[in-house]
Design a protein that fits this description.
By secondary structure, this protein is mostly beta strands. It contains five helices and 36 strands. Strands 10, 11, 12, 13, 14, 15 and 16 form a seven-stranded mixed β-sheet that branches.
Length: 530
């Protein structure tokens, strides 16, 4: 037996053991079966499923192997009990059968003699990762697709997320803690390990049973790259139609937005708005039957951009629940903040403005690290960034959204560089020859020979050729008031250390004597004396 089929059908038995007989596994109008996976004991025996057909139906007799008996092989419209029987076997065996009705075809997988295991919930999978249990073990997880990053027909794999209720909430930290309710399927494959050939093979709200190797990637629970396979896929009976959250963004002043749905049940639609969004988003109306339209209203927004994901729910005649979801965005003011405030903010659509010093480029052309007096963060792929726009030491103002990549915070792709103050590294000798200019910034590097005022960091730098007074050395861009005080001792910077500092040239005159200074110095880096 090929390994691919062994793994796939091993998982199918587990699925069978977890499904009740009255859960139709495939929801075709023409033909339905109580289970599309049939397991027969290795010692031999029979298993019966219920088949409901809207017209005459028949199995393909040419597919039936010698070891398997199916009775009956054909039938009329209505409900029929179909029995699958096989004698004892020394080894596991499988087959795939097809039953035709009208112009549709139902697939039934028959398995005999393969071991089984349990299907776990997404919450159980998360708990295993957080408890460091079953890591690097193959598991079978059942959940609802709650987010899709990509279904790639180029590479044949998909990255998406599942949760128990179809919502995407919370997140995870690098140490594995967090309140996330989702499991990431990273670059997984389609049914039986086949490559994806349709970029719309599945959608948010669809139910999936997946097998793959469980792991933690920087604290994020996920199914390991290229080990995930879909065992079963049930399309949701409710679907969002033609809605683009970017095009439908509610303005800052408030307003309405409508979401069109298709619902293939008779039970109507209910809507769930997350608790933390109920103070700004409400429902105006739900109109229509098979194609309902839900209209939402948002009040005026006095803060930053805000966003929430609403969940639409319906049930079929057997009480089985199906979900779909849509993201509702509202524009807001841009929030000016420090790096520390940005890092403490939630992942979302709010726009933040930060100013700081570029400490280094990220992978040359994929962004840069920005630091102010409170901390440092990654600015990932700003719009139009090529790597030549800024350099280490430059002062940059950026606007963008708070994101997180596998536990590492960042300003997400597509942020805007609003302003750049270029900083020129020069020698002290060159600096002394420049003219005073409060808008021109330089970076000086030298050895600290004297600290005049440890409270504000007044000190002298010497680069081996000349020396200069640095009038104030502060912990980073944006520091004011008490945040400027006593920083040198806090950082352990002493006489003899090598210091790089950013500032402007200023000539100070007292009693007719001129002193050239680097004023309001901004710390860039230092090296301890050997």
């Amino acid at each position: 037996m090929k390994l691919k089929y062994f793994l796939s059908f091993f998982a199918l038995i587990a699925l069978l053991s977890s499904c009740s007989d009255d859960d139709a596994m495939t929801l075709l109008d023409e033909i339905r079966v109580s289970s599309s996976y049939v397991a027969i004991d290795v010692e031999g025996g029979s298993t019966t499923i219920t088949l409901n057909a809207g017209a005459a139906w028949a199995f393909d007799a040419e597919e039936l192997p010698e070891w398997l008996t199916v009775s009956p092989m054909t039938g009329a419209a209505g409900e029929t009990q179909v029995t699958f029987s096989a004698p004892a076997t020394d080894d596991g065996r499988t087959t795939v059968l097809h039953v035709a009705c009208a112009d549709k075809e139902q697939t039934i997988n028959v398995i005999q003699g393969l071991p089984s295991t349990d299907v776990i919930t997404v919450r159980e999978a998360i708990a295993m990762v957080q408890a460091n249990q079953n890591i690097d073990k193959t598991v079978i997880v059942k959940g609802i697709v709650c987010r899709i990053d990509e279904i790639s027909t180029q590479y044949g794999n998909a990255t998406y997320y599942i949760s128990d209720d179809g919502s995407f909430q919370g997140g995870y930290s690098a140490n594995g803690s967090g309140d996330g309710n989702w499991l990431e399927i990273y670059r997984g494959y389609w049914i039986d390990g086949e490559r994806f050939t349709d970029e719309h093979a599945f959608e948010v709200g669809d139910e999936m049973v997946i097998t793959g190797v469980l792991m933690s990637y920087k604290g994020t629970p996920e199914i390991k790259e290229k080990t995930g396979q879909v065992i079963s896929h049930i399309k949701s009976l409710i679907k969002v139609e033609g809605y683009d959250p970017e095009d439908a963004t509610i303005p800052l002043e408030g307003g309405n937005v409508a979401v069109n749905l298709t619902c293939k049940t008779n039970s109507g639609v209910s809507v769930e708005i997350p608790e933390d969004a109920k103070n700004w988003l409400g429902i105006v109306s739900i109109a229509g039957g098979a194609e309902p339209v839900v209209t939402f209203h948002a009040n005026a927004n006095n803060g930053g951009d805000r966003s929430t994901t609403v969940v639409f729910k319906t049930t079929d005649d057997n009480g089985k629940e199906y979900t779909a979801q849509a993201t509702i965005n509202q524009k807001g003011a841009i929030v000016a903040c420090t790096v520390a405030d940005f890092l403490a903010a939630e992942v979302g659509t709010t726009q933040y403005r930060m100013t700081g010093v570029v400490t280094s480029l990220y992978r040359e052309n994929q962004g840069f690290y920005l630091r102010d007096y409170t901390g440092e963060t990654l600015i990932y792929k700003p719009a139009g960034f090529t790597g030549s726009e800024v350099k280490a030491g430059d002062v940059v103002t950026v606007v963008g959204k708070r994101g997180d990549y596998k536990g590492s915070p960042q300003m997400v792709e597509g942020s805007t560089i609003e302003a750049i103050i270029p900083v020129t590294p020069i020698s002290i000798d060159e600096f002394l020859d420049k003219e005073d200019d409060p808008n021109t910034y330089y970076m000086l590097t030298g050895t600290i020979t004297k600290i005049d005022n440890p409270t504000y960091g007044n000190l002298y730098l010497d680069d081996g050729t000349n020396s200069v007074l640095v009038y104030g050395c502060y912990p980073g861009w944006g520091a004011t008031g008490d945040n400027r005080k006593n920083w040198l001792s806090t950082a352990g910077i002493e006489v003899g250390d090598k210091l790089s500092v950013i500032g402007v040239r200023k000539t100070f005159t007292k009693d007719g004597e001129e002193t050239i200074e680097l004023q309001n110095g901004i710390y860039f880096s230092h090296e301890k004396a050997q």
